[in-house]
From TrEMBL:
Keywords: Signal, Transport. PROSITE patterns: PROKAR_LIPOPROTEIN (PS51257), TAT (PS51318). PANTHER family: HIGH-AFFINITY ZINC UPTAKE SYSTEM PROTEIN ZNUA, HIGH-AFFINITY ZINC UPTAKE SYSTEM PROTEIN ZNUA-RELATED. GO terms for molecular function: metal ion binding. The lineage of its organism: Archaea, Methanobacteriati, Methanobacteriota, Stenosarchaea group, Halobacteria. The keyword Transport applies. Residues 133-143, 151-163 have a biased composition (Basic and acidic residues). It comes from Natrinema pellirubrum (strain DSM 15624 / CIP 106293 / JCM 10476 / NCIMB 786 / 157). This is ABC-type metal ion transport system, periplasmic component/surface adhesin. Residues 133-163 are annotated as: Disordered. One of its GO terms (biological process) is metal ion transport.
Length: 342
């Protein structure tokens, strides 16, 4: 990550409503669009776009430090700022509806911007919100072989699907390749650079996948508890473990007393000692209230953060951590602890 570049958030940036988006590009000069700059819709896509582009393109992330990318809503004139650049990387999913609206406007009214959907070609790999994870344990490759069979020949509402594909390092590699292809199509002069950078980064993701396979291959347990919203299904499905949460799929949901009691019983019955939590709910280091409740009322004695990687915190930004570093420095130690891996 090039942390010396422009700040992630400019004062006053952001999009407003779809109606406002449609009318704000009339006085933009197409000749002003430069492929040496671009935007990515949230932290992980920004990091991947930076990794792929190297020094060729200066990407910005409009989501502020400490904020989670999914569920975020911009304000101001982000559309104009994006239209003044040469590329926009996003995920075409309702959880990023502002980015869908912005991408549609760019494609219809301002075709000098390369609009790159990281989910392109992955429709048959998406998991439903109610997907049941097999915790029997596998080598991390079953997901690829089964998901396309489940979805083939069916039309589904896109809101049925969990968007957190970036947490699966195998699918992450495919998204990185998609970003590289999109940038190469828009900027052929630097195509070799994008291809080489993407290949090197995909190698890193493959190494991360191998480490996760080894971790869960040596795990003594397959169940853990996460005191946050349900966002790790792709990771669970890839490596065959269960991450129970009393919170639903929305970060705004509040667990009921019954759901909390069920979680406490699970902790006690399974002998779970460490609870995982969302560090974006505790940016200054204190435990979230739900964690405090579970620690008070169960036999668990400790808690560790587990990042959903849709944003970054100030301390991580100071360290220069991107997607891979958050996985290695935050998630791998936490997962190793809760599944009692070697």
């Amino acid at each position: 990550m090039k942390l010396t570049r422009r700040a992630l958030v400019k004062a006053g940036t952001g999009a407003v409503t779809t109606g406002a988006i449609a009318g704000c590009l009339d006085d933009i000069d197409p000749a002003s669009a430069q492929i040496d700059a671009g935007y990515a819709a949230f932290f992980t896509l920004w990091d991947w776009a930076e990794q792929v582009s190297g020094d060729a393109i200066d990407f910005e992330n409009p989501v502020g430090t400490g904020e989670a990318g999914h569920g975020w809503q911009p304000s101001g004139d982000l559309t104009r700022n994006v239209a003044d650049t040469g590329a926009f990387v996003y995920l075409d999913t309702p959880e990023f509806s502002w980015a869908q609206d912005l991408a549609a406007t760019l494609e219809s009214d301002y075709d000098t911007v390369a609009v790159i959907d990281g989910l392109e070609g992955l429709e048959d790999r998406l998991l439903r919100w109610d997907h049941e994870v097999d915790t029997g344990g596998h080598d991390g490759n079953d997901h690829d072989e089964t998901e396309s069979d489940d979805h083939e020949g069916h039309d589904h509402d896109e809101t049925d699907y969990d968007p957190h594909v970036w947490l699966d390092p195998v699918i992450a590699g495919e998204i990185v390749d998609t970003i590289a292809t999109g940038l190469a199509d828009a900027d052929p002069d630097n195509a070799d650079t994008y291809e080489e950078n993407a290949a090197a980064y995909v190698d890193d993701l493959e190494s991360l996948d191998e480490r996760l396979q080894d971790l869960f291959g040596s795990a003594d347990r397959r169940t853990a508890v996460f005191a946050g919203h349900d966002s790790f299904t792709y990771l669970q499905d890839r490596y065959g473990f269960e991450l129970h949460t009393p919170v639903g799929v929305s970060p705004q949901e509040t667990p009921s007393s019954g759901e909390i009691s069920e979680t406490i019983s699970l902790i006690d019955d399974e002998g779970i000692e460490t609870i995982l939590y969302d560090p974006f709910e505790a940016p200054t280091g204190e435990y979230p209230q739900l964690v405090e409740t579970l620690l008070r009322d169960s036999t668990a004695t400790d808690a560790m953060p587990l990042s959903h990687l849709s944003g970054t915190l100030s301390a991580w930004e100071d360290e220069g951590w991107g997607y891979r570093e958050q996985m290695e420095e935050i998630n791998l130690p936490a997962l190793r602890e809760v599944v009692d891996a070697q």
